[in-house]
Specification:
Structural class: mainly alpha
Number of helices: 5
Shape: globular
Distance between the termini: 34 Å
Largest sheet: 2 strands, parallel
Number of domains: 2
Strand content: 5-15%
Number of strands: 2
Helix content: 55-70%
Length: 100
């Protein structure tokens, strides 16, 4: 957990599930990497992952997405944990269309 926490701090070396840079480079599947928009999820971590995944595309999070995600989290606290998954899958298409 300490390594993970350090990776989120500005300037820290990002920790990606214990994988080395060489291991990440072998992941040869398309991936969307979403940047963070706050101090808890800094943008540099997403940029570092994007640089290490050969078939990835970096998506810079916008205020719109941050507000939408925040609303979904608040609603899931009221309606239960399963709500978040359903809301996320229902809105991911809308979000991707808004950034493409």
């Amino acid at each position: 957990m300490k390594a993970w926490a350090r990776s989120l701090m500005a300037g820290g070396r990002p920790h990606f599930a214990g994988l080395s840079d060489d291991q990440l480079a072998t992941l040869n599947i398309p991936a969307l990497v979403f940047s963070g928009l706050d101090a808890i999820h800094p943008r540099h971590t997403a940029e570092a992952l994007y640089a290490r995944l050969p078939k990835s595309e970096l998506v810079i999070t916008t205020e719109y997405y941050a507000e939408t995600l925040d609303q979904m989290i608040r609603e899931s606290e009221e309606k239960g944990g399963g709500y978040f998954d359903a809301a996320l899958s229902g809105r991911i298409d809308e979000f991707v269309r808004s950034i493409v």
